[in-house]
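Backbone geometry tokens:
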Amino acid sequence: MSEQQDVIAELGDVGVLAGVRWAYVSATTRSLETYSEADGHDAAWLGNTRYTLFRDRLDRVFACERYAVRSGNDDADLDLLYDQLSERDVDSMPRLHAGLVRRANLNGSPGWAHGEIRFLLASCVFGKLDRLPWPQKSPTKRRVAKQRNPEPPQPSLFEDLVPEEIGGLEALLNTDHDLDVKTYVVAHSLDALSQQAELVFGRARLNAGGGQAWHWRQNLLDAPPAGGGRRTDDAPLPTGPNTVPDAPVRLRRSVEERRNNRSSGEG
């Protein structure tokens, strides 16, 4: 299978992509509901608000940062998790294990990781995803776009070399561009007038000459919404190492469990 098939299958099977999709739809919907030109809002306001809410929703659905499931009052945890979310958001939030994804920022740029797969966020002008100008982005995003392509086309300059020699030469040329873990990008865009949105997951390609911006990308809005609900403990755990010590955590109880406890007099 190709890298795209492997990565999309792994993240799709455990619910990570469903979580990303939910977070973006929630953030975009809320941004558009609040957006008002009459109130002085403009494209910059909409972009900043969408990004801020997208980051917040990702932390919520993956139980990261302030939404980590810590020991204490479960009801208080749920109050924080669902604060300011619409009923639609609460009902459609995917059921994910609280340890499935961890925060994995890169040089201050917000990032999230499942096992050995990390992704960052990047905004784009609507309709321009395939020409997203990585050279104009931050040094961190440019470094991500410089990562070695694991499936490079064989250049004609080296057509007389055997595949092993080509791979070795490319690895040598790109040694300084590899990161601690494979890092991908979730790119997103929104047109305020038509309210059309774009959301993709892919391997960025440094397009210094203005060419193709991706080695590959996957449209995340094509997939149907995942089943909603609160987190349970039946999702697979992360497969890769996490070198950052975790705070003590536990899973939130379901609504039914809390109702039963209240009826029996438990807190």
Observations:
- The beta strands are 102-103, 111-114, 117-123, 182-190, 197-204, 214-219.
